[in-house]
Amino acid sequence: MIDALQKGSVILFSKRFSSMSFAPKKKASKVQTGKRHGKWLELKTRKVLNSVSLQYDAEGNAIGLSHFASPITGEYKGRKIYSVGKTKKVTTVRA
Question: Which has the closest alpha carbon to 70: 59, 58, 52, 82?
Fold first, then answer.
């Protein structure tokens, strides 16, 4: 009886997977592929933009990303991490 059940399950197993293929039935167009990839990219960029948290100074201006040292003062959590030097004036040169 166990042999008959095992044989029956093998037959069911082979019937179940005989019609399935591992390749797509039709070729996906370039437009459809682009839509799928574009939608994924749009969702990922939205998540990244929403997850960015900024660091603000006393006036309320965004000065950098939170959990990073301040680019203006060089401090992180009230401790001096690096010294900020005087910025040089940038001159443009025509080539």
Answer: 82
Q: What tokens appear for 28 in the block?
A: 């996906």
Q: 76: which strand partners?
A: 79
Nearest 5°: phi and psi at 76?
-140, 120
Cβ atoms < 10 Å from Cβ of 62: 10
| CB 62 within 8 Å of CB 55 | yes
| Predicted TM-score (pTM) above 0.85 | no
* Euclidean distance between CA atoms 78 and 61, whole angstroms: 18
Tell the residue number behind the tokens 């939608």, with chain if given: 39
Question: In the numeric block, which tokens belong to residue 37?
Answer: 């990839």
Question: Bigger pLDDT: 12 or 39?
Answer: 39
Tokens of 39: 């939608």
What's the pLDDT tens digit per position in 13-50?
455 555 667 888 899 899 998 898 999 999 988 888 78
Instruction: Say which amino acid occupies 9.
Output: S
